[in-house]
Amino acid sequence: MSATDPTRSGAPTPIPPGDEWAEPVRGLVLDIDDTLVDTQAAMRSSCAQAAAAAWPGRGADDHELISDVFYTDPENFFDRYTRGEFPFEAMRRARYARALADLGLPDERFETFEGAYLDAFAGAQVLFADAVPLLDAADRAGVAVCFLTNSGDRQTAIKLEAVGLAGRAPVVTTDTIGVGKPDPRLFALACERAGVTAAEVLCVGDTLPTDVLGARGAGLRVAWLQRPDRPEPRHAGWGTPIDDPGVRIVPDLDAVTALL
């Protein structure tokens, strides 16, 4: 896999792999979900509470099953949303209907589910303890930051407001241009909003196909976050061998701070 810099005009210019880490880090493109914020835990608990609100006559095991299927998304509706195939709400409705199917429940009460989910989700957000120290270190070092997420605008605003990061950095979401990572246009836009070129940027994220391969395809170096004390997020691909000197596997954001 060759890294390229899409911020330059004309054909992409290969970046010599051995030279990439010699360039100082002048910008950070930070994933949000399961990188800065414990989104998996928030989603699972909020889905279970929402299922209980929509289907109060069902037992806790059924509520947990709905939550598990909604989160794991076996039909990959979320990925299809990031490719521009679904509006955000239609994606959510499709995931909800699929989560009910295993219990033979009719596709109804979505509004009740979604309203309860949003109420619970705002209160379920937990910022990882190493997130603010990384942002503070970036500020001290004069390193620009942009948040880049495959989630939608509304969900992202809820998360950032709940954990005190609203306004801390510019934000790019799937809703920004209608597609998400790994599309290289998202990474190029994040670099532009941070005011840096791709070769100057370190992308930090937890998921192989979107964060790691997407960033590498756009010419960014990558710190692939694999937290040993957290369950692996959906489609993260932890443990997959990757032979690319532009990618470094890190166990926490403190290790990213050391790279600044």
**CA-atom Rg in angstroms:** 19 Å
Q: What top-tier CATH class of the largest domain fits best?
A: Alpha Beta
Q: What characteristic shape results from the CA principal axes?
A: elongated
Q: In total, how many beta strands?
A: 6
Oligomer: single chain
Question: How would a crystallographer describe the biggest sheet?
Answer: 6 strands, parallel
How much of the sequence lies in strands comes to: 5-15%
Q: Would you give the CATH topology of the largest domain? A: Rossmann fold
Unreliably modeled segments: 1-15
CATH superfamily of the largest domain: HAD superfamily/HAD-like
For the biggest β-sheet, the strand order reads 3-2-1-4-5-6
Helix/strand class: alpha/beta
Span between termini? 25 Å
Textual characterization of the structure:
A six-stranded parallel sheet has the order 3-2-1-4-5-6, with helices on both faces. Helices cover 44% and strands 10% of the residues. The chain folds into two domains: 17-38 and 126-257, HAD superfamily/HAD-like (Rossmann fold), CATH 3.40.50; 39-123. By secondary structure, the chain is an alpha/beta fold. The two termini are 25 Å apart. It is elongated and about 60 Å long. Strand 2 (144-148), helix 7 (153-162) and strand 3 form a beta-alpha-beta unit. It contains eleven helices and six strands. Helix 1 packs antiparallel against helix 5, helix 2 (60-72) crosses helix 4 and helix 5 (110-123) packs parallel to helix 7. The model is unreliable at 1-15 (pLDDT under 50).
Describe the secondary-structure layout.
Layout: E1 27-30, H1 39-54, H2 60-72, H3 77-82, H4 88-101, H5 110-123, H6 131-141, E2 144-148, H7 153-162, E3 171-172, H8 174-177, H9 184-194, E4 201-205, H10 208-217, E5 221-225, E6 247-250, H11 253-257
Parallel strand pairs: 1-2, 1-4, 2-3, 4-5, 5-6
Helix pairs in contact: 1-2, 1-5, 2-4, 5-7
